[in-house]
Amino acid sequence: MPLHGTASEYNPLLAKGVAPNGPAPSVSVSTAAQTLADARQDTLDAVQGFFNAKRLGGQLPILLALPGLRLMTGSNASSSSGSPYAPTQNNEPSGGQVAAGLLLAAGGVAYMFVHNAPYSDAKFAELRTSYLAGTPLPADIRERLKEKHVAAGRVYRARMERKAARRRR
Predict the structure, then answer these.
(1) Sequence-separated (6 or more) residues with CB below 8 Å from residue 138
(2) CA distances, 95 to each of 40, 107, 110, 131 (Å)
(3) What is the Cα–Cα distance from 168 to 39, expressed in whole angstroms?
(4) What's the CA gap between 51 and 44, in Å, rounded?
(5) Which of 4, 115, 120, 145 has the fewest C-beta atoms lying within 10 Å of its C-beta?
């Protein structure tokens, strides 16, 4: 049985005699070391994508600051009048509104810092160094990696490489 991607695989162009004339395209043969390096890079891309996704999820609670600010300023939908000539009402927020707003904002910021601590760039650099030295990935991270993390990590790495290339110019 012919193997996919090898010279013994069925080639319909050669079977019909319509193969293009000219030099044969060079086939890159990957060595075991190159294959291992590619697999390690894919794994590191997946870990980077996983860390980025976790950091984004940890930043979403900061949106609690928006209703907190609204509470602290005392603004609400009924305080604005439809006419620009109508007298405006001065609604000072009560102490309870200010306290609730501060609690919402502080809770969102605290959650963001606590949630993002295990997924920092320093933790990734430490994990990357130990992984390239031969230490296997921790089981809790290895079990949570998905194909979408590999794709996201590749996109992130490509963006960082383009950014570094612009700086070198």
Answers:
(1) 127
(2) 56, 18, 22, 53
(3) 28
(4) 10
(5) 4
Q: Quick one: what percent of the chain has pLDDT higher than 70? A: 71
Non-local CB neighbours of 75 within 8 Å, separated by 6+ positions: 91
Question: If we measure between CA atoms, which residue out of 41, 53, 40, 52 comes closest to residue 136?
Answer: 40
Global pTM reads 0.59
How many residues are given for the chain?
Answer: 169
Cα–Cα separations (whole angstroms), residue 35 to 30, 42, 158: 6, 11, 20
- CA trace torsion 111, 141, 39, 42 (10° rounding): -20
What gap in Å lies between CA 129 and CA 137, rounded to an integer?
11
Residue with the two structure tokens 């992984």: 131
Is the confidence at residue 39, as pLDDT, over 90?
A: no
Output the six-digit token pair for 151: 């794709």
User: What would the two tokens of residue 152 be?
Assistant: 């996201």
Under 8 Å between Cβ of 34 and 81: no
Rounded Cα distance between 62 and 73, Å, is 18
Q: Which residues neighbour 136 within 8 Å (Cβ) at sequence distance 6 or greater?
A: 142
In this model, does residue 38 exceed pLDDT 60? yes
126 pLDDT higher than 90: yes
